[in-house]
């Protein structure tokens, strides 16, 4: 496994692999790797000739009062994890290599970037779309692997890749969870033992809602879930919305496949989670 710190060098290596006919997989991360990331790496190692894991805490996707400085950066441990999991290249660029002081270009995915998390984190998705576009160009990836926990991010990256004619295929990967249901996230390390116990309720409530949605109206399902979410001690809900699976648009009575997506503060930690909801063919109970 090679550790590459320079953007031009990474791109040169990737271009050489392309020329040799290798298929390249990219797993974009901000590090603090956990089982969720490892499952993405495993998919790439299986599908692609070459696996690149990028580890870059991207300053442009953090707001001024967010956790950019506090974000965990266990680089040595991350490199060990990559090595153990058969990664070919770890790409760990410096901030001023990716975003030099004269940097001017940003990617925006209109509308999708402004709803849900975007309404609470202005410029977040602009930062994500920009860095992902750069990572696609630097890595020359044939496939890039994204977890479904960041469902809005996944949809934004898919739209960006389509609109900007990137050749990189986006591979959505299911959410990795702890045994108790808590969705894995690098930010879970901020939670105290008690907060972690409280956080487990989020996935349980979402699971119950998905079950109810099969044969109930989504407004009543959402209301029940919201009532339950509000009762989690120490919680503050940013949003809890049921939206269309394909494009995050509002649902209506014809919606067959939706996503119930939530962002909730547990103490000082903001957690996101979601569940896919599929309408049963059975008649809707009144
Ligand atoms: O999901 C993440 O870890 C980040 O948003 C990403 C995709 C690596 C971009 O910085």
Notes on the structure:
- The chain folds into two domains: 172 residues, HUPs (Rossmann fold, 3-Layer(aba) Sandwich), CATH 3.40.50; 93 residues, Pantoate--beta-alanine Ligase, Chain: A,domain 2.
- It is built from nine helices and nine strands.
- A six-stranded parallel sheet has the order 1-4-3-2-5-6, with helices on both faces. A three-stranded antiparallel sheet has the order 7-8-9, with helices on one face.
- The model has no long low-confidence stretch (mean pLDDT 96).
- The structure holds pantoate.
- The site of pantoate has 10 residues, from β2 and α6.
Q: Give the cofactors and ligands.
A: pantoate
Q: Provide the CATH topology of the largest domain.
A: Rossmann fold
- Taken as a percent bin, the fraction of beta residues is 15-25%
Radius of gyration equals 19 Å
CATH superfamily of the largest domain: HUPs
CATH hierarchy, class of the largest domain: Alpha Beta
List how many beta strands DSSP finds: 9
The geometry reads as globular
């Amino acid at each position: 496994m090679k550790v590459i710190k320079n953007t031009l060098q990474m791109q040169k290596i990737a271009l050489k692999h392309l020329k040799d006919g290798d298929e390249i997989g990219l797993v974009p991360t901000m590090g603090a790797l956990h089982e969720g990331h490892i499952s993405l790496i495993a998919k790439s190692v299986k599908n692609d000739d070459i696996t690149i894991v990028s580890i870059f805490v991207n300053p442009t996707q953090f707001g001024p009062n967010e956790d950019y400085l506090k974000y965990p950066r266990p680089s040595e441990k991350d490199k060990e994890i990559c090595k153990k999991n058969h990664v070919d290249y770890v790409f760990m660029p410096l901030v001023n290599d990716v975003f030099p002081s004269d940097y001017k270009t940003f990617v925006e995915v209109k509308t999708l970037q402004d709803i849900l998390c975007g309404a609470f984190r202005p410029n977040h998705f602009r930062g994500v779309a920009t860095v992902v576009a750069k990572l696609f160009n630097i890595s020359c990836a044939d496939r890039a692997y994204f977890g479904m926990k960041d469902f809005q991010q996944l949809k934004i990256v898919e739209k960006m890749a389509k609109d900007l004619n990137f050749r990189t295929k986006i591979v959505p990967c299911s959410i990795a969870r702890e045994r108790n249901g808590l969705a894995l996230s690098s930010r879970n390390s901020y939670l105290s033992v008690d907060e972690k116990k409280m956080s487990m309720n989020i996935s349980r409530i979402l699971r119950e809602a998905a079950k109810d949605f099969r044969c109930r109206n989504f407004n009543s399902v959402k209301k029940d879930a919201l009532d339950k979410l509000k009762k989690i001690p120490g919680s503050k809900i940013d949003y809890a919305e049921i939206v269309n699976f394909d494009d995050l648009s509002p649902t209506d009575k014809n919606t067959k496949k939706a996503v119930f997506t939530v962002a909730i503060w547990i103490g000082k930690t903001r957690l996101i989670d979601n569940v896919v909801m599929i309408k049963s063919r059975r008649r809707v109970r009144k």
